[in-house]
Specification:
Elements (H helix, E strand, L loop, with lengths): L11 H4 L5 E3 L16 E5 L2 E8 L14 H4 L6 E4 L5 H31 L2 H16 L8 H9 L20 H12 L9 H21 L24 H14 L10 H5 L11 H17 L14 E3 L4 E5 L9 E4 L5 H11 L19 H17 L9 H15 L8 H8 L4 H24 L17
């Protein structure tokens, strides 16, 4: 215990009861060595005993936001403890002992917290983000960094907001991940079971843990993730009748221009207005856009980049060589499976022999799928569907890709069987598994039900009309 100071005269305003606190060093004269700045003893209403209180330096305080309420938006909270005595001198001595020990505990906790932060997912996220941003610079996938940032920072569900993200990575376990799955489950809706989000978050977590293993924890075992269950629903696609109606309507809306052999100047002279998307040239562009998806099984994200120079007319077939592919993979060749693609492509190439094929007059945003383009073609698609009295809600160009796959598999069932399914999937820049899960199993279900309905005879007593007689 600090050596008691010789009795001194207490400040007059304290004696008169006008003052409620005494500074241990400045007012009572105790040595300052090792005593936290601002240590005071003070009167409180809840007790006759004096209270010791001080505010540690922010760099010594391990509390969130340095002890600041509301994430640091309010002033920091002081440390407090009862001295157990009413005597100012005795209270000051006890305050010094308590404050020195408390400050040491805070500093130790602060060091431990800093060490944990150095080995938490937060640290590896920062390192991974820098490396990944640099690696993707100048590539098509550069814009996808924003998606990764959203997975990390997304309000409420982002990884950074989960308590276990602050733990050292070697202490993260399956129970932590189960808790996280519960957080994501709370965001379920009738149309979203969150299985897709779980898969995306799982991928990023594994990448960060792998980063930790490469940097600091060579023997780190990545914990098992909870099972991700999802209910596979049939994707929205058009029937062949609906598809034919759609193309017919788009031709009508283009005043027949979509099916005409137009020169470059003829195409440029088509009626066009920046103020109204539903103009003649845009309807021609939509027609060509739909057919590119239909014949070449393109992804919607390919459309803003696709150029006339990427297509090769080899006489009996047209081959599309995607110069920029998903994930910046090697060039991908895709061929048409429908013979009418030849004339369709040559007509398209006649009016746009060079440059962008899809809405070429719309300005592109560097390195990303242009949102204006997406809005334009999806709006026109929905307007055309409405004109055909085909439900248009939620329909996008991705549904046209689904239509192309689904109807091809319906019209050529052999493409759903090995080995053809593998070449068909590769040609469409997808996998045999995706074709099976997304289209073939639903085609089989519908086909089986249709065959059985034709075979099974109706029951005589289930008919709405008929003679009342005993069944044979």
């Amino acid at each position: 215990m600090p050596k008691k100071k010789p009795p001194q005269t207490l400040p007059e305003d304290w004696v008169r009861g006008e003052r409620k606190s005494l500074r241990v060093v400045e007012d009572l004269g105790f040595p300052s060595r090792g005593v936290p700045d601002g240590l005071v003893v003070q009167k409180i209403t809840k007790s006759k005993n004096l209270e010791a209180t001080y505010l540690p330096l922010a760099e010594d305080d391990p509390r969130d936001a340095g002890g600041g309420a509301r994430g640091g938006k309010k002033r920091r909270v002081r440390r407090r403890a009862s001295t157990g005595t009413q005597d100012p001198w005795e209270a000051a001595q006890k305050a010094i002992l308590w404050a020195k020990a408390d400050l040491q505990r805070l500093r130790t906790r602060r060091e431990e917290t800093e060490e944990q932060k150095h080995h938490s997912l937060h640290a590896y996220w920062e390192r991974w983000l820098v490396k990944e941003t640099k690696r993707r610079a100048g590539t098509r996938s550069a814009s996808r960094i924003r998606d990764d940032i959203l997975k990390w920072e997304g309000e409420g569900y982002g990884i950074k907001h989960q308590p276990w993200s602050n733990k050292p990575v070697d202490r993260i376990n399956t129970l932590d991940l189960e808790d996280y799955w519960s957080v994501l489950d709370q965001r379920r809706t009738p149309t979203n079971d969150m299985s897709g989000t779980k898969k995306q978050q799982k991928t990023l977590i594994r990448k960060l843990l792998t980063e930790a293993r490469q940097q600091d924890f060579p023997h780190l075992v990545i914990p098992d993730f909870p099972e991700i269950s999802s209910q596979k629903k049939q994707v929205r696609h058009l029937t062949r009748k609906e598809w034919d109606l759609l193309l017919k309507k788009v031709v009508e809306l283009s005043e027949g221009a979509a099916r005409k052999d137009l020169s470059v100047s003829d195409y440029q002279d088509l009626q066009f207005s920046k103020a109204n998307n539903q103009n003649q040239r845009n309807w021609v562009d939509l027609y060509d856009c739909l057919n590119l998806m239909w014949f070449f099984y393109l992804r919607a994200e390919d459309l803003p980049r696709i150029r006339a120079e990427w297509f090769q007319d080899r006489g009996e077939e047209i081959v599309c060589v995607l110069e920029i592919t998903k994930g910046d993979r090697n060039k991908q060749e895709t061929r048409h499976y429908r013979s009418d693609a030849l004339k369709n492509w040559r007509r398209m190439n006649q009016r746009r022999p060079k440059g962008f094929l899809v809405f070429p007059h719309t300005k592109r945003s560097a390195g990303e799928t242009n949102s204006t383009l997406k809005r334009t073609w999806n709006l026109l698609l929905q307007k055309a569907l409405d004109a055909c009295e085909i439900p248009s809600e939620g329909m996008t160009m991705t549904n046209i890709r689904h239509t192309a796959f689904r109807l091809t598999l319906e019209e050529a069932p052999e493409l759903g069987q090995a080995p053809a399914i593998h070449s068909f999937a590769e040609n469409g820049m997808t996998s045999a598994k995706m074709l099976q899960e997304t289209y073939l199993r639903f085609i089989e279900q519908e086909s089986t039900a249709k065959k059985v309905r034709a075979k099974i005879k109706p029951g005589p007593w289930s008919m709405v009309r008929g003679r009342i007689e005993d069944p044979d």
